[in-house]
Amino acid sequence: MAVHEVRVTNLPHLEDTRGKNLLYEIKTALHIYSISKIVTAKVYRFEGISLQDVDFLARHLLCEEVFQHYTINQPIIVDADRVVEVAYKPGVMNPEVGSIMKAAEDLGVNGLIAADSSHEYGFYGTITEKEIGLVLSRLLVNETVERVVPEKPDTLVIHGTPGVTETIPIRSMNDDALMDLSRDKLFLNLQEMHAIKNYFTELGRDPTDCEIETLAQTWSEHCVHKTFKSTLVVDGSLKKPLLKRLQEATFNARHPLVLSAFEDNSGVIAFYDGLALCGKVETHNSPSAIEPYGGAMTGSGGVFRDIMGTGKGAKVIASTDMFCFAPPDLPAEEVPPGCLHPHYLLRRVVAGVRDYGNRMGIPTNNGSVHFHRDFRAKPTIIVGAYGIMPAGDARKGQPQCGDIAVVVGGRTGRDGIHGATFSSGEMTHRTIDVNASAVQIGHAIEEKRLSDALLRARDEKLIRAVTDCGAGGFASAFGEMGQKTGVKIHLERVPLKYPGLAPWEIWLSESQERMALAVAPEHLERLLAICHEHNVEATAVGEFTDTGKLEVYYENECVCELEMNFLHHGIPGRTMIAVPARRPGEVKEPDLPGDWTEVCAKIMGDLNVCSKEPIVRMYDHGVQAGNALPPFGGVSGGAPNDAVVLAPVLGKKYGAVISHGMNPVLNTIDPYAGTIWAATEAVANAVAAGANPADLVLIDNFIWPYPDEESLYDLDQAVDACTDFVRATGMPFISGKDSLSSTYRSKDGSVIKIPPVVCISCFGRVEDVTATVSTDFKRTGSPIILVGKRDVNRMGGSTYFNITGSYTPGVPLVDLSVLPETLKAIYRACRNGAALACHDVSEGGLLAALAEMCFGGDTGVDVVIPEGCRPDYFLFNETAGCFLVELDDRVDAGELFGGIPYLTLGQTTNTKVISVSQGGKKLFELPLEKLLYAWQKPMKEVFGG
């Protein structure tokens, strides 16, 4: 049947925002200046309906006549020097298409077989073929998921014949053949391959491709966390597995709020009024490295589904994001082969998180961005989510024999196949080509409908158990749900996006927006009705059994039969050796600043200190109407707060607090001290906002280079730091994630390891959100108190040492014997109203914290540095767990902070100047205007603000 085209663009006198942004990218990222203007258009294609129906859809659905116009089967950009159309490749999720198909049906247009959408770009100017090639390859076309459309297609329908199930002759393979089978796709070691070979040898048969793929994903580092479960040999002594140490520390803490820890898709704590809070933080590094927009989108979507799949189901109330990139101005020649430029990565990752959260109506309201040159091969992309549910629904469900296995949500395609195994291996120059199918594009509207339907089903008590189809797809979801019973799945029942998938592809697909449920037979009809009401597809695909087996069928052929015991417990145990890394580096201390204005401006403009407001403003952090303390505040709305506070139950004063801490630079020098710093920073951020430290819990994320002996030693030190922090503070870790594949190996054998990343997230409950505190100064003449024990002479990893080219291995150490009482004192000061403003000290040190508080209050400060110390170290030291407090002038600081280290620094002024003195002499006076300009400039340059 004929394919009809509709093209829509803005009226000529209106600004083309998409074209303007692309032109900015071309000039800033590619330094191409021959293009004077870019005009864009949307292209829609329809198959199976009449020209009259196409015109009806154009007028009533696709074009807004107030500011747009359209053509049908005709060009709309007619005078450009070059026109290029870019579309998703066939089979890649196009989120618009489902909405278009549903909208057409709702408008009474019947017979629509297929639809598609794309973008057309009209370039004006003297652009050369070489330049257009650069624009396409570097900015417009990610060959992983996109293509240039050369001409109108004959059909939009994807045809295909299902592939046959193959038998893998593993019993006859020698070691070389086993590793050839594993390389690029399975990512299993020789011992694991032998375990599989032995299992099937005992069965007297060879495995199917479906069985091999199921074992590979289940045994992947991503899914089974085998490094974290290994016995370690450190300094010649055996140590408990990393995961066991974390779990034991949490168990021994016996925190009264913890309802579920390390046993479900997220950790759960008690809230108020019979409710519970849950939190999970995930990574999506590998997909984002090769397709940043889709990788970040599906990272957010996946962690949202972790919340939706906790207990019997939770409502997502918040999203967080923490990113690590190489500097955006990195010279192009320093980007390794097969990798994307950090400027492009940063902008596209932010866009992916923005589009998914905003479209689902979930506030993204806590996060950070960090920079280091060694992220140039592979970024670190961390996304988190938090939810609320009835406490009675917080326990993980367990299917019973006879329950129906149901898949709910999006359809299944080839997207994401090998995602779990791909994310478990090192990145190379071939990754972007070999693993292209591991990347997906998310569909936020589909997930929003899915979330609403699941919450309704939960409230009607229809769900026995639920989990998301994340890494490994159905293999992971149903394989884990049926672990204690058994499960039989019929793949021919699974709704597909298009024909032609082999059985193992259906089983392993990581297509997004899908959840797996166990439902009692008597509840199935009602569940299906609820899903239909919410326009969510739901299909019964099997049943839970009592066989202890995973059984997968495709049209009466058994394509997979595995003992659950072997699938989940047959992986060989590991004993791994950890060896300390050598960290050469000559101690070099800086001279005292000759120009304080220049040094302070460099501190504020450093990429790890500067304002990230242009990013935050892309996120809707006020949706759901619960934001009691936003990411930015103060007089002008541009001062960063330390944590976010939400009131998720409308009309109630109680709320939830969310914060985090991380500093990859410190971990490159001392992973133990850097991890303590990260945990302290996470908690300090929450307490600075007024949270009670007794009501806080933690989530760990370890993003690490591939665990060779030296990287493993650093990981061991980081985990020890976490357990020591739990023992010192009583705050337990209740969820976590490790991602141990952030090593790049080039064709010439050179290796780039990322700085070890430990991201510690903190969340908890707040009794009264009106008693929380922001960072902005509130009055003039208020005393400013520095609270906490500072390790002031240890400057290793500080921003100051970075900008001066200095080095020392001595990073600032947090005194865990003093920290708990410091946190309690800050909480008391916030709770009783004595603290008018509070801000913790982190990157940039005391100077940066003071400046940010001044930006918020539009005030100045007059500060006196104690005699006998280096003034630069005093101002720029970054010891975590220290606070700047604006105190009510009627309060006695000695009474409030007696028993812990504190110092009266000075007072707020109305001068809009930071004035610093020592020993009766003025060191400098800095106009806030200069510091604010330096602080805001870097991200404005990246995002065109």
SSE order and pairing:
Layout: E1 3-10, H1 17-29, E2 35-47, H2 51-62, E3 68-72, E4 82-88, H3 95-106, E5 114-125, H4 129-140, E6 146-148, H5 175-182, H6 190-203, H7 209-218, H8 221-224, E7 231-234, E8 237-239, H9 242-253, E9 258-260, E10 267-270, E11 275-283, H10 285-290, H11 292-308, E12 315-325, H12 342-360, E13 364-371, E14 380-390, E15 404-409, H13 419-422, E16 427-428, H14 431-434, H15 444-459, E17 465-468, H16 473-481, E18 487-490, H17 503-508, E19 514-519, H18 524-533, E20 538-544, E21 549-554, E22 557-563, H19 564-569, E23 575-578, H20 596-605, H21 613-616, E24 627-629, E25 632-633, E26 639-640, E27 644-646, E28 655-661, H22 664-669, H23 671-688, E29 696-703, H24 709-729, E30 733-739, E31 743-745, E32 751-753, E33 757-766, E34 783-787, H25 799-803, H26 819-831, E35 835-840, H27 845-857, E36 860-865, H28 871-876, E37 883-887, H29 893-897, E38 902-909, E39 913-918, E40 921-927, H30 928-943
Parallel strand pairs: 7-23, 12-13, 16-31, 18-21, 29-30, 36-39
Antiparallel strand pairs: 1-2, 1-3, 2-5, 4-5, 4-6, 7-8, 9-10, 10-11, 11-14, 12-14, 15-19, 15-20, 17-19, 18-20, 21-22, 24-27, 25-26, 27-28, 28-33, 29-33, 31-32, 34-37, 34-38, 35-37, 36-38, 39-40
Helix pairs in contact: 9-24, 11-12, 11-15, 12-15, 15-18, 20-30, 23-24, 23-26
